[in-house]
Amino acid sequence: MTVGLKWIVSFCIITLVAVGGLFWSPIADFPNTGEFLGEENIVGADVAWILAAAGLVLLMTPGLSFFYGGMVGKKNVISTMLQSFIALGVISILWVVVGFSLSFGDSIGFTMNGEHYGIIGNPLSYPFFSRVGVLPHIYMASTIPFILFALFQMKFAVITPALITGSFAERVRFISYLLFMVLFSIFIYTPLCHMVWHPEGLLNKYFGVKDFAGGTVVHMSAGFAALAGALVVGNRKRPHHDPSNISYVLLGTGMLWFGWFGFNAGSALSANATAATAFGTTTIASACAMMTWIFFDRINKRKVSALGACIGAVVGLVAITPGCGFVSISESLFIGFISAIVSNMMLNWKALKKIDDTLDVFACHGVGGIMGMILTAIFAHGENASLLHGGLEVFAHHMAALLLVSIFTFFGSLLLYKITNRIITLRVSEESEDLGLDISQHEESLC
């Protein structure tokens, strides 16, 4: 059997990464420059909660694989599930080598009016997790070990490219997807993560963007990348199919909802009142979105379906993510309600239907993230924190940031798809698409 050059090159890369870490760590153990606190600052309750939250967020990626896998046709279940699951391997390694440094390393950016604004982190700040140890970081996580913060954030980086896969399911080559996933994580996810969540980040420090748990960083970036992917890869030969296993979708939704408590409440980075608020707003927004979705479907003469209930619940989870720690329970009800209606309308919009976004990733995650960002800018509590609390300038900055993020993630992803396609063809052959990706890409099947 002939092994393609691309697979040999991939194996050589993972070999260099595995061996390279042995040589880097000893020589890169830079002295503490004052950004770390002593072990006495560690709070045991916070450590216990973030350990649990990190595990919950990890569970979301297998949950997503069931959620997506149940929606596709029977010939593409395994390939679709693997595209989500493989992110646990690829992005975890990438995060250790350079991803965490690019996301949370020392800011590289520009200075304006005496203030520094970061675009991306220095890749030499924490390569191979150098200096990422048990001491808390003074700015980013002051009551938990820095390594726990890094691993918690890793789970967010893992699930983001996995979310994109639903847009080009049933027609993309596996090796091409692996390459795109790496490029997306380095050139889209890490700078966006740095700009929003690093203390010196441009969107955080200058625009004042409030993104408690990833509505902008995770869901908007994945949504616009999904839209770009559907456009570049093109429509399937047979775009209509029956979902293979609705019970998989129900199981995946339950795993996602369960894991989302770690996603949102864990983003408080502490076992405190904010975490409790985020826990409550998360489940209430999702519950309201689920019920709104099925009622709205029925009003529009569509049957009440398990698939619709699951999609509605996930839309609510997406929409509440950026504001879950900033809004009240009653406001989360409205966020779930209005986001479900807007997302449902977008999903059934005829113009968008012409684009073969297989599992409607943009209509759910992209639009849900957009709605979450807008509604957070309207409802977030605190003096001058949002439009309803005297923060007209904050709201205007959020809308400007929304436009900036949309352009960056869509056109940046579009370029990365084009580059990937030049290196390794993205789309499978017509014969492989007819046969199904389970067999043509992996020589496995459900039967």
TrEMBL record:
It comes from the Bacteria. The keyword Membrane applies. It is found in: Cell membrane; Membrane. Residues 48-445 form the Ammonium transporter AmtB-like domain. Gene3D superfamilies: Ammonium transporter AmtB like domains. The keyword Transmembrane applies. It is a multi-pass membrane protein. Keywords: Ammonia transport, Membrane, Transmembrane, Transmembrane helix, Transport. The chain crosses the membrane at residues 7-27, 47-69, 81-104, 134-153, 174-192, 212-233, 245-263, 275-296, 303-320, 326-347, 359-382, 394-417. NCBIfam families: amt. Belongs to the ammonia transporter channel (TC 1.A.11.2) family. This is Ammonium transporter. It comes from Chryseobacterium profundimaris.
